[in-house]
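Workshop exercise sheet. Pairs work together: one partner reads the sequence aloud, the other fills in the structure field after running the prediction. Swap roles for the next sheet.
Pair: D.N. / O.F.
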Amino acid sequence: MEYDKDKVDEMTLALLYLVMSREHEGGRAWKGFDWQTMGRLHRKGWIADPKGKAPSVGVTAEGMKKGEELFRKYFQGK
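Structure field:
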């Protein structure tokens, strides 16, 4: 099935923001999303490399800012 991967990336980052723990300039979030999406988020500079055994992934300061922006855009109440 064809789908808009950029929109999937945005929604995934917004949901990561929802469950993220804040640390210094970035944060950490559970990496329970598909590997292709997580790889794209890494290539966009929004998260650290998701490969590894840790159940969570580092979120960059840029990813945290973008995640908050997208969360508000898609999920903030009126």
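Discussion prompt: Residues 20 and 29 are 4 Å apart (CA to CA). What would you look at next?
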